[in-house]
Specification:
Blueprint: H1 4-21, E1 41-43, E2 49-51, E3 55-60, E4 76-81, E5 85-87, E6 94-97, E7 103-108
Parallel strand pairs: 5-7
Antiparallel strand pairs: 1-6, 2-3, 3-4, 6-7
Length: about 110
Amino acid sequence: MRMIAPLALAALLSVGATRALSHQSPSGWEYPFYCCSGADCAPIEAESVRESRTGFIVTIAPGEHPMWPKERRASLKLEIPYDKATPAPDGHWHLCINDAGELLCFFAPAGGS
């Protein structure tokens, strides 16, 4: 019986560690591990995305993404080629950037904008 308690604790800790590494979109699907470290990914408004002949132009105003807070003075503008876009499982736009505003991952709804 004494062995069960440590095993149960270890199991709970491993589940907690797994959950801490994962990062879910608001609709419940998991952002890929290589895209984020718990805060780098977030949904963005369709109005932030414009399609060009070579891909997407994404403009994020300060405060519209967790990694681009209101303290930033200027909007972030990213030009994302079509081959860097991944289909979004929930049909919404999602952007993953680091704190320097560099693209990590971009998820687009099927059919573009």
